[in-house]
Specification:
By secondary structure, this protein is an alpha+beta fold. It has three helices and five strands.
């Protein structure tokens, strides 16, 4: 039986090498997400106007760009999830990778802009509890 409260159940467990090998792909996916967020911000006002006037049958030239941006963001986040990576903060590009450290499951912690994973934290502590990975795991 799947227990939603247990973050360790049914998760992929990464090695440090596997997680680091995914960084280039993550960087590409986060680039799409950031690009999509930029489009959403740029078209926000026009889309709000179109939405408010939808009962009049109008549309917006920004509509297709807006829809594509939503699609790109959704597909990128879905791909990250399918890889077994946990997205923690979309604005920071913050991701966790389930990892076995000293016999217990913890999260390797990576943030967009970091060229390799050097941090980990307890499942319950989050980003604020990040600690440097022990030398023996590098």
């Amino acid at each position: 039986m799947h227990n939603q409260e247990d973050p360790q159940e049914n998760e992929r467990i990464f090695t440090l090498a596997e997680a680091n090998d995914l960084i280039p792909q993550l960087e590409q996916l986060w680039a799409l997400i950031k690009q999509g967020k930029t489009v959403l911000i740029q078209t926000r006002d026009e889309i709000k106007k179109a939405s408010a006037n939808a009962h009049l049958g109008g549309g917006s030239l920004a509509g297709p760009k807006y829809i594509q941006a939503l699609k790109d963001i959704n597909e990128s986040l879905h791909t990250i999830h399918e890889l077994g990576i946990i997205v923690k903060d979309v604005d920071l590009g913050l991701c966790d990778f389930p990892y076995l450290l000293d016999g217990k499951i913890v999260y390797l912690c990576w943030k967009l802009g970091e060229n390799r994973i050097t941090w980990w934290h307890e499942i319950s502590s989050g980003y604020s509890g990040r600690q440097v990975l022990p030398e023996s795991t590098s």
